[in-house]
Amino acid sequence: MYVCQWHLQVPFGKQGQALAVIREWGREKFASSEFRRAKGARVMVGHIGESASAIVDEYLFESLADFERALDGMQEERFRKHAEALAPCVVPGSQHWKVFRVVE
Fold it and tell me: Which helix (H) or strand (E) holds 31?
């Protein structure tokens, strides 16, 4: 299993707007892309010891191949509107993925 986390920072006052876009995008990802292969998902925000400007969009995948297929699907035109809606809410250059292998 792999925990795949998309990390991003938002400017002060933009957290609510960013979360609304991430939630809508998430609904569409699970309905019409390979993200439906994810075994779980959640969104987290900084609270104690981490800035409230930090957002983590997290997914649990069985394999890296499943994760890669999910990412490839995000290039489809139907997802562009979500990326464009989120762009003004993201500190440029702050977004990145972290991938962890679950050790059982």
Answer: helix 15-32
